[in-house]
Write a structure and sequence with these properties.
256 residues, alpha/beta, Stationary-phase Survival Protein Sure Homolog, Chain: A, nine-stranded mixed β-sheet, two-stranded antiparallel ribbon, 7 helices, 27% helix, 29% strand
Length: 256
């Protein structure tokens, strides 16, 4: 099995470095990842500039290809030119920070996995929830992530299908509550912006990266992660509202 490993935190990110050795017993692992942090870049791709690549050795863990582009660029380029053959599985992560709720839409980690699904490949996005009082243990989280990958593959992940996995934030004396297959929460977050003025008296706003979610439903990814479950959510990239499509097709649309 050939596995493409990518991310949005950059090729030297601790989550990717920690995950790499856990995947090597599953198959041959090739790393193609951004050369710098691309968090919250969603599904952007590079059209008006060249994509520079560089072979780099990351610590003593692996040698991979760094791409001066977005996560989706990395997958496109890897599949079309860099890898020796078409991969059997694409893994994106592990991201430093949870990708649950509407964060799934913003996430470059998830976008890389969805890009792989666009190309007809099975893919999994992996993320770690971060808490101030629980420094991330990437090695331990990688072992839990590998368990999640094994469970998903055993359940069945076909070409063009994608799942996102979130590992809970755990202190050394804590264990995950188990696995939960849950839906994506779609309730909006409230962003916090700092308002300031530049030297010319013009207002500008800086996102303080403080987000508030008033409530969430018990069957959602956010609730399960809060309760220390490893969450698994199957995703799709068909954005069509099929119920509304059916309703609208039952009426006449007349051109006047």
């Amino acid at each position: 099995m050939l596995i493409l490993l990518t991310n949005d935190d950059g090729i030297s990110a601790p989550g990717l470095v920690g995950l790499y050795p856990e995947l090597t017993s599953l198959g041959e692992v090739q790393v193609v990842a951004p050369d710098s942090v691309q968090s919250a870049t969603s599904h952007g791709i590079t059209l008006h500039a060249p994509l520079l690549t560089n072979r780099v050795k990351v610590q003593d863990a692996f040698t991979g290809t760094a791409v001066d582009g977005r996560p989706a660029d990395c997958v496109k380029l890897a599949v079309s030119h860099i890898l020796p053959r078409r991969p059997n599985l694409v893994i994106s992560g592990m991201n430093s920070g949870a990708n649950v709720g509407i964060n799934v839409i913003y996430s470059g980690t998830v976008a890389a996995a969805i890009e792989a699904a666009f190309l007809g490949l099975p893919s999994i996005a992996l993320s770690i929830h971060l808490r101030a009082n629980a420094p991330p243990d990437y090695a331990r989280s990688a072992k839990l992530a590998r368990q999640a990958i094994d469970q998903i593959l055993a359940a069945g992940l076909s070409a063009g299908q994608v799942a996102t996995v979130n590992i809970p934030s755990l202190r050394a004396d804590e264990s995950p509550a188990g696995f939960r297959v849950v839906r994506q929460c779609t309730r909006p977050w409230t962003d916090t912006y700092l308002r300031r003025q530049d030297p010319r008296g013009r207002d500008y706003f800086w996102n303080a990266s403080v987000f508030t979610l008033a409530t969430t439903d018990s069957d959602s990814d956010i609730a399960a992660l809060r309760d220390r479950y490893i969450t698994i959510t199957p995703l799709q990239f068909d954005l069509t509202d099929h119920a509304l499509l059916k309703k609208w097709n039952q009426r006449e649309w007349n051109l006047k």
